[in-house]
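Researcher: Sequence recovery benchmark, item below. Answer with residues only.
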């Protein structure tokens, strides 16, 4: 069973067997704030004609501070950090570090239960640092869109899972190199 199926099954089980804790109605009011940390880890292996050519890791971390400007409507500026290591079978390893900012608009749906669905749209940028490379362009993230579920484990804390699509221009700081990405991120939200 793949990891994405396991995450979805766990979310469904948590939703079905949860007690009715504080949901969206108690926090998503104008003036409320939410601090979120989301992340993902990916391990990859590349093959060419049946022979391994490289492997590596990709780690994503995002920290957002949400401000409810109206009931259920949230502005979420944040910072993102991506660190990747690429290990070719022949040649030396490469490390990539990408740091940037992102701005999101999110809408939270009141279900009256601990499971709160939400949708979002984001735009942002990344500065790029790659081993032995200079004069890299800034990458633009436009758009990063998706939806997810915040599942409240207490009146002030929620597990957060989101499915997203993003389009990035100047990928890895290279002019005219674009990428489309679908993925899953997870983390924790704290309300205050």
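Model:
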């Amino acid at each position: 069973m793949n990891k994405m199926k396991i995450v979805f099954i766990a979310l469904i089980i948590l939703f079905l067997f949860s007690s009715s804790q504080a949901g969206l109605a108690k926090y998503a009011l104008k003036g409320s704030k939410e601090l979120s940390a989301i992340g993902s880890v990916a391990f990859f292996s590349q093959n060419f004609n049946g022979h391994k050519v490289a492997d590596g890791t990709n780690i994503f971390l995002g920290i957002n501070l949400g401000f409810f400007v109206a009931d259920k409507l949230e502005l979420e500026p944040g910072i993102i950090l991506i660190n990747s290591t690429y290990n070719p079978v022949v040649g030396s390893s490469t490390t990539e570090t990408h740091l940037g900012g992102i701005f999101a608009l999110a809408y939270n749906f009141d279900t009256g239960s601990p499971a709160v669905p939400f949708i979002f749209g984001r735009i942002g940028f990344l500065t790029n640092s790659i081993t032995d490379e200079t004069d890299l362009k800034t990458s633009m993230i436009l758009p990063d869109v998706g939806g997810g579920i915040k599942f409240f484990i207490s009146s002030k804390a929620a597990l957060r899972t989101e499915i997203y699509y993003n389009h990035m221009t100047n990928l890895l700081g290279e002019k005219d190199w674009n990428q489309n990405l679908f993925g899953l991120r997870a983390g924790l939200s704290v309300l205050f």
